[in-house]
Every structure is written in C-alpha cells, then in structure tokens.
Amino acid sequence: MQLREQHDFASEQSLDLAPVNRKAYSNGESAARSSATTTSRFGGAGAKAAKTTDKPKSKAALKIEELEQECTRKDEAFAHQKQAFEQEKDTLKAENEQLATTCTELKSDVDQKQAAIVELRETVDDLQGKQSSLLQELDGLRSHLSHATSTIEQQTSEIKDLHDKVAALEACVKEHEQQAIVDEAERRRLHNMVQELKGNVRVFCRVRPFLSGEDASADEQPVACLDGKTNTLASCACSANVFSSIKLTVHPSAMVLCSWQVFDRDSTQAQVFEEIEQLVQSSMDGYNVCVFAYGQTGSGKTYTMLGGDDEGSRGMIPRAVEQLFQRQAELAAKGWEYTFKASMLEIYNEEPRDLLATPGSATKPVISWTAPVSNLSEFAVTVPDDVHELLQRAETNRRTAKTAMNARSSRSHSVFRLQIAGENKAAGEVCNATLNLIDLAGSERIKVSKVQGKEEKEAKYINKSLTTLKRVFTKLSQKDGHVPFRDSKLTMLLKDSMCNNSKCLMFVNVAPTAASASETKNSLRFAAEANKCHLGTARANSGTSSK
Q1: Ranges of Low complexity compositional bias (predicted)?
Q2: In whole angstroms, what is the distance from residue 62 CA to residue 58 CA?
Q3: pTM for the whole thing?
Q4: Annotated binding residue at 299?
C-alpha cells in the first residue's frame, strides 16, 4: 500500500512539471533557431567585426545567452528527472513483480485454507457424530452410575451389618479360644490322670512271629498268650491280637506271668503303637517319656522300634514322630507353637558315641550325673522326612556283629532323643520335655550267644548295663533311698526318664521258639520286676512364659 501511494505521488509531480518542461523546451528550441538565424545573417559581418574590434554585447545577445544557459539547465534537470522516472519505473516494476508473487502465494494460501476448512468441516462432522455417541454413552453411564450408587448404598448397609456380625463372631471366637485354652488344660489334666491310673511305669510283652527255618508246629510252641478273663489259651485268630497274660508251656514248671498287655505273633505295628501313642501325647504336654525295647538278640526289638520301609511295618520311632508333627499342626489352632530337636547316640562298651556326628569329628558326647548328655549333635526337624534321614544315617553307623542268636546283632544300646519345646503366648504357658526311644542291645547270656574275643567283651558290657537297669527297677519298686543310676552309662542317661516327672514304658520282646525258652523266661522275669515299679505322680515340665 505504501509503495502504491509513493507511485501516485511521483506521477502527480511529473504531471505538474510537464507543462513547464515542455514550455522551457519550446523556448529553448526557439532561442536556438533564432541564434542560428542571427549567426547566419550577421555571421560574416560579425566575424569581420570580431576580427577588427570587440563590440559590447547587445541585450538580445545577453538574453539569448541567458536563455541558452537556462535551456541547458532545463535539459540537465530534464535528464535528471528522466533518470529518476526510470529508476522509479524500475522500482515500481520490481514492486509489481513482488506484489504478483505475494498475490500468487496468497492465492495458494487461500486454497490451502479452503482445503483445511473442508477438512475441518469433515472433522467437525465426525466429532459431532462422536459427541452424539458419547452423549448416548454418557446417558448410559449415568444410568449405570445411578444403579451402582444405589447398589453401593445397599452394600454399604449390608457391610455395616456384616461388620456387626463379624465383631460378634470375633467376640465369640475369642471366647471359644479362651475356652479352648481351658479345655486343653483340662484335657491335659484328665489325660495325665488316665496315664497315672495306667501307671507311670508300664510293661508290654510282644511275641514275634516264627521266622523262616523255625518250627511253627503246635507242639513246638512254648509261648502261649492267655485270655485275661478265663486264664485259658486264647486263639491267635483273635482280631485284637492283644492279651493280658503269657505262659511258658515247655518249661519244667509252667509259669504264667501277667503283664499290662501281651501282643501275640499276629499283632501289627499299628496295634502296638495304639498302646503308646498316649505316652507320646504326654511328651507334648511337658512330661519326660521313655520307651525302650528289651529282650534277647533276635526277639524283634529293632523291628518294634524302627520297623521296615513299607507303610504297615513302620516302627514306634517313625510313628511317634509322625504323631508329634500331626499334633503340632492341630495344637497350632489353639495357640501352641512347638519346636523339635533330634539327636541319636549309642552306648558301646560303656562309652557314648554320637551316631549323627560329622565323619572325622573329634568331639565326643559325655554322659554325667549333672547333665544327661553333652557334646551331642542336635538337628532341628520340621517334617517327618527330616527324622527319617537322621535315622538312616544313625543306623549305618551303629555297631553290629554276628552271634549264634542273630546274624546281625546290635552290640550297643541305641538312644533316639527328641527335645520338645512348646509355648502358648495367648495362655502364657511353656512346656519342655524329652522323648527317649531306645533299642537296647541283646540280653542273652554269653554261653548261649557263644561269642568270643571282642564280641565277648561287648557282651559283658551289655549284660552289666542291663543288670544295672534291672537293679534300678528293683530299687525303685522297693522305694529304696539309693538307686544305682551311676553304675552304668545307660541308667545315668535314663535317670531323668525314670524319676517322678517322667513316664516309662518297656517292651519285652520274646521269641516263640523252644530254643529261646530259657532267655524268654529271663526276659519275662525282668518284665515282672519292672512292672512292680511305681514312680509316683508325674509332674510336667511346664510353667509361664515371659511376655
């Protein structure tokens, strides 16, 4: 716009000056022609006169000269103006080209804008369609929100009611938990009362079945189980296979020895364990418990305690361990937390030996009067398989030898110890106990076992410790003030399991053959002596926990 205004102003000036320039130009041409005429007319005379003398110029000449000078100035001004006009023309031409380019660009921009407008209109149409769809969806969501709000209000009301019910149920649960603690304490009291009535020292007799190669004919069966009511021979087909008496029929003076219970040849491991599982429960209640198998070599002691690998032949030790872990899970619901630590040792020639020690270990267990055993490897066990692995390791390390009574006779007393610790934080109670499960070495006499040399020495140590065990039972049954616990490592180890706060059970294992009748008689006499023993009222190792 500014360039256009400048162009118009320059045009106006050129138009204003045009008449003057044309007039000046016309006057200039007239003066030139007049001068030329004068020169030609008076040329000759003038020349002559100039040559002869200089005459003063006339007014006309001066006027002509003045006009010529004016014409020259006008010509120069015209030339300058023409040059200015040419420059202005070039400038206007460049501006015009620039404006044309700008116009082209603007037209292109207008086309783009129009295309964008079309596209935007399409977008607007699309967005309006989406908006319509979203509005419909919004209406649906509002309806859903309204329904959800109504549902939430209803559920909030229901939740409040449920909270009230939960609070009531929690109060009821707490009340039942408190009652469960009271009931558990009462169960323990009644359970212990029943065990007290049965006796804190109990003796069970178990007759093993005939082995391959042994005569099982009726005439050669020196051991018979008697019915406790009729005192007559009982049928071995009895489903319970549990009797109250045992009779030696081949001995010169037939003898009947009464025991707490007698398990005949057909009794199973499960039936035998049923009679000791209550004692295993007592160990979780805080009572020291000792279960050991006594009898001659080959009478079934190790089978009774350890058993075989299949499910039905598992012995007392693996069954007791499984019961402990089962009860641990059950009592957890009543607030009790239990931990178990297992160890195993043998007493060989009056020397304790750690059956679970690391090979090459120089540390040896010590049995003393003040502490049952020290320097003994202990392993925390959390599942029955942990104990099974330990038993396999210990069985590999146990001392055995061949005798006339058994091809693989145990030459040491094997003791499996389980330390039990329980705590009920809610009730503020704790309990601790030791469960000893013992497989004693064979009790046969040297002249019967026919051992010599090293095995003879082993047999002497075995018989000495078993004799001491018998004397301990005798002194306890006689209420003697001096009980010879110190006379052997075995009785010193079992001291805590044969005192007032303990429960003790002895399996007397006997063989059914006539060849074993003499050893069976000695074993039954030992059982009769032990059965007379009474340890008094057992006391649990329990107390209150520090919270």
Answers
A1: 30-50
A2: 6
A3: 0.63
A4: yes
